[in-house]
Amino acid sequence: MTRFRPLGLVAAAVLTVATLATGCSGPTAEPDPTALPGPARSNAQPSVSPGTPSPSGTPSGPGEPSPGTPTAGASPSPRTPGPTPVPTAGEPDLSLVDGWTLEEKVGQIVMVGLPVAGPFQPTFDMLRDQKIGGVFLHGRTTAGRQPVKNLVDAAVGAAAQEREPLFVATDQEGGAVQVLRGRGFSDIPSALDQAELTAPDLRERSRTWGAELAAAGVNLNLAPVLDLVPQAGASSNAPVGVFGRNYGYTAESVITHGNAFAAGQHDAGVQTSIKHFPGLGRVTGNTDDAAGVTDTVTGPDDPSVDVFDAGIEEGSGLVMMSSAIYTRIDPDSPAVFSPAVVGLVRELGFDGAIISDDLSAAVQVQSVPAGTRAVRAVDAGVDIVLASARPSVAPAMVDALVRTARDDPDFAAKVDAAAARVVAAKADL
Q1: What is the pLDDT at residue 88?
Q2: Cα 186 to Cα 212: distance, rounded to the nearest angstrom
């Protein structure tokens, strides 16, 4: 990883979770998957237990296709022949996506929710029709490892294609935020409790927890949380402190224990994403269920950012962006839509994939049409758009990304770079 840090600049990453239905799932319990899907077919109905909720039907905004509508019609973009220049240090290797169609590249940069309690088929259809490159196991289940593995295998089958393996992600932090439970999955303590362990002990335990994920087919854990929460304000910090998702209250504790957790996951072959850059430790509202969530304290050289710097230095696979507003960095846009805040991640020397927090259902971004959310995130420098809590909006996001890239060569170049970073992140899967 190339590391460089011009004076006064730093980086960003996020993802919110708590009692809400977002990308980083919250503590609210959901029914278990008691029936698993068969092979995905375009006209097949999802195999789910009675009473399983249907996908949300929230509109995606004026001028955009309704959720569930396949990407609009024009014929696939032609493959681009010819050699690609060798990348310079810190730049994505565009040769990784040389010859890919635009649709294939856009598919790689979208991650769609797969509800562990169903319905499953809508997501399977998107994996096939939109060439989606990643799923997020969303919700809560206590069904245990084998039903989850069956679900993952069905998703992989639905997405079967020549290109790249499927990112299969979830939130397995511990405590209130643990999507997968039951036989084959340990009950993981909260990050606050994990911080009571020595770093070697935590790494060893995390290796076990990671091996459980790997055995179920999960290859990406959207953890650990590296948000620095002041102890005095923890009880009013809705997204993190209230649930003990923080690894203690000092930068040293967060860095030591967060990195130990990540190292254990990596030892087990599971990729990780540190979150939520540049930190959700000082806000009171949760971006999943509140609008206007703003941090007026955190700046580019803040200790909160230094914690993420240490996680990047340790070799984090991905970085997740927050969707809060940081007035001392960019007062006009949520971090996930801000080139200034996303750019800080690159200034810290991170050249891997940057992922958004959930952009499908988070109240913080609901005033922006779904397709526009995806375009604004990628335009700001985000590589993976997460549509986890309300996957039905993902086709509108894909359509908007394809349409914008066709019309704007500069945006198309950003799609190319994002897809190349995602493919590079999958190299060891």
Answers
A1: 57
A2: 8
Does residue 190 fall inside a structural domain?
yes
> Is there a domain that residue 41 lies in?
no
CATH number at residue 332: 3.20.20.300
Q: At what angle do helices 339-347 and 370-380 cross, to 10 degrees?
A: 40
Pairing of strands 271-277, 134-138: unpaired
- The answer, yes or no, to whether residue 85 has pLDDT greater than 60, is no
- According to DSSP, residue 352 is labeled S
Q: Convert the pLDDT of each residue in 385-402 to its tens digit.
A: 999 999 999 999 999 999
* Non-local CB neighbours of 230 within 8 Å, separated by 6+ positions: 249, 281, 282
Structure tokens at 170: 């979830």
The answer to the question of residue 67 being in a domain is no
Range of the domain at 287: 94-425
Mean pLDDT of 302-312: 98
The pLDDT assigned to 316 comes to 85
Which pLDDT tens digit goes with each residue over 156-200?
999 977 789 999 999 999 999 999 999 999 999 999 999 999 999
Residue with the bigger pLDDT between 235 and 8: it is: 235
HSE value, Cβ hemisphere, 13 Å, CA-based, for 213: 36
Mean pLDDT of 122-132: 96
SS3 of residue 196 by DSSP: coil
Q: Is-contact 114 139, C-beta < 8 A?
A: no
pLDDT of residue 237: 98
Helices (H) and strands (E) in the chain, counts: 11, 13
SS3 271: strand
What is the strand order of the sheet 294-295 is part of? Answer: 294-295, 325-326, 330-334
- Kind of pairing, strands 220-221 and 177-178? unpaired
Give the predicted TM-score (pTM) of the model: 0.83
Number of domains making up the chain: 1
**Both structure tokens of 299:** 């700046």
Closest CA to 159 of 99, 228, 217, 235: 217
H-helix or E-strand containing 221?
strand 220-221
**Closest by alpha carbon to 326, among 313, 310, 345, 312?**
345
Is residue 169 a part of any domain in this protein?
yes
